[in-house]
Design brief:
heterodimer, A: alpha+beta, Ubiquitin-like (UB roll), DNA polymerase, domain 1, 2 domains, five-stranded mixed beta sheet, 5 helices, 5 strands, B: alpha+beta, Uridine Diphospho-n-acetylenolpyruvylglucosamine Reductase, domain 2, Uridine Diphospho-n-acetylenolpyruvylglucosamine Reductase, domain 3, Enolase-like, domain 1, 3 domains, five-stranded antiparallel beta sheet, four-stranded antiparallel beta sheet, 12 helices, 14 strands
């Protein structure tokens, strides 16, 4: 393998200007090509609702929506979203005093314990229902396979998604 | 984890991507969805000097019927494969296999061409295209060439693509009425297969392939030959480990992988309708 540890910033990776719409607001920023999307969202835009969990595209804590589809922002470069539309957990609720139906369902069904996985879980669940509006319980479990809850609180998370889809759940 | 710094070029066309590859040679890597390459860059196992982003070449995102086969653009995502009505009707095994790649977020970003070019022996889709006897279409400075799936995977994360070539289309045969099944064995959801076995058996096709049983996805030729001479599913599957070179890692020893290959092949053959 080529030894490149000596390669430093400045020799490679001139910044690139990107324009991206996040939660309805358009931002133009210069970013290093290697800037990960999750760092762009959290540090450059200050939207810290999106968490970093495993940083290896396993846990789903960093899930955001790109053009309505769930993606793991730790495994994307900021330059890859140039010109695209993102939604993060901050952009889900219709107003400051109102929750998105998925957020409300997580609250009502106790779909969180420590809360660390919750932003990613909620975003993945919104994407899941957009693709499959009335999933079975098994489909919810399979549809959330990309999101880990370290409290292992899956049961109520699944109930939350079923409730948000308008289906009855045992209370 | 942050990749080593690299230069970034976004290609607006296949021609532009090829010219960037020609300019930067071995130092450049194509990135489509980035879901194989970027994790390796974050671990600094891959350190390309130039990333050529081909992720917006939407004219390479298609699934269409054509002269007895299904033609799939290299930029087609796993999500598009698993939800494709054309594939469900004409080559359903590929849709089924795409459905078990990674997780929904990965399938929204990962592409068929990217997965094949990455040539990971533990990946699902390369073995599926191999079992189907598919054809890969590559474009380079000297034009277009077709590579059969059997010749494409040349080594561990190595393919027959030249550094200045780009995979543009994948062709798989229509498999009307064929039985098919993919047995993917892993311990956790979203993991790579510890071992996988894919069977597509019907009129004009008898393809069996193995995932993670060597340095490339492997065609289970001993099993296919046994089936051709009339062996039962159990007898054919008994030779599934022949010609393999199973790796050892923390999930499994080679001997355990060989056992899994035989068991999974039998299950895949039986589910595909071989008695």
């Amino acid at each position: 393998m080529t030894v490149v540890l000596g390669r430093t910033r400045g020799e490679r990776g001139d910044s690139v200007e990107i324009t991206v719409t996040v939660n309805g607001s358009t931002y133009t920023r210069d970013v290093e090509p290697r800037r990960l999307l999750v760092h762009f969202i959290r540090e450059d835009l200050g939207l810290t609702g999106t968490n970093i969990g495993c940083d290896t595209s396993s846990c789903g804590a960093c899930t955001v929506l790109m053009n309505g589809e769930s993606v793991k922002s730790c495994t994307m470069l900021a330059v890859q979203v140039n010109g695209e539309e993102l939604t993060t957990i901050e952009g889900l609720a219709p107003g400051p005093d109102e929750l998105h139906p998925m957020q409300r369902a997580f609250q009502e069904q106790h779909g969180l314990q420590c809360g660390y996985c919750t932003p990613g879980m909620v975003m993945a669940s919104v994407s899941l229902l957009a693709e499959n509006p009335k999933p079975t319980e098994a489909e919810v479990r399979e549809g959330l396979e990309g999101n880990l809850c370290r409290c292992t609180g899956y049961h109520n998370i699944v109930k939350s998604v079923l409730a948000a889809s308008g289906q009855n759940v045992d209370s | 984890m942050i990749p080593v710094a690299f230069d970034y070029q976004r290609a607006g066309s296949v021609e532009e991507a090829l010219s960037l590859l020609a300019e930067h040679g071995d130092d450049a890597k194509l990135m489509a969805g980035g879901h194989s390459l970027l994790p390796m860059m974050k671990l600094r196992l891959a350190v390309p000097g130039v990333i050529v982003d081909v992720g917006r070449l939407s004219d390479l995102s298609y699934i269409r019927e054509s002269n007895g086969h299904v033609a799939i653009g290299a930029l087609t995502t796993h999500r598009q494969l698993e939800t494709s009505e054309v594939l469900r009707a004409e080559c359903p095994v590929l849709a089924d296999v795409a459905h078990v790649v990674g997780d929904p977020q990965v399938r929204h970003r990962g592409t068929l061409g990217g997965s094949l070019a990455h040539s990971d022996p533990a990946s699902d889709l390369p073995a599926a295209v191999l079992a189907l006897g598919g054809t890969l279409v590559a474009r380079g400075p000297n034009g277009t060439r077709e590579i059969s799936a059997g010749d494409f995977f040349t080594g561990y994360f190595e393919s027959a693509l030249a550094p200045d070539e780009m995979l543009t289309e994948i062709r798989v045969p229509k498999t009307p009425g064929a039985g098919y099944n993919y047995q993917k064995f892993n311990r956790r959801a979203q993991d790579w297969a510890i071992v996988g076995a894919i069977a597509v058996v019907g009129e004009g096709i008898s393809g069996v392939s193995l995932v993670n049983m060597g340095s490339t996805p492997l065609r289970a030729t001993a099993v296919e030959e046994a089936l051709a001479s009339g062996a039962s599913a159990a007898d054919a599957a008994a030779v599934a480990a022949e010609g393999t070179d199973a790796p050892a890692d923390l999930n499994a020893s080679p001997a355990y992988r060989e056992h899994l290959a035989r068991v999974l092949t039998r299950r895949a053959l039986e589910a595909a309708g071989v008695s």
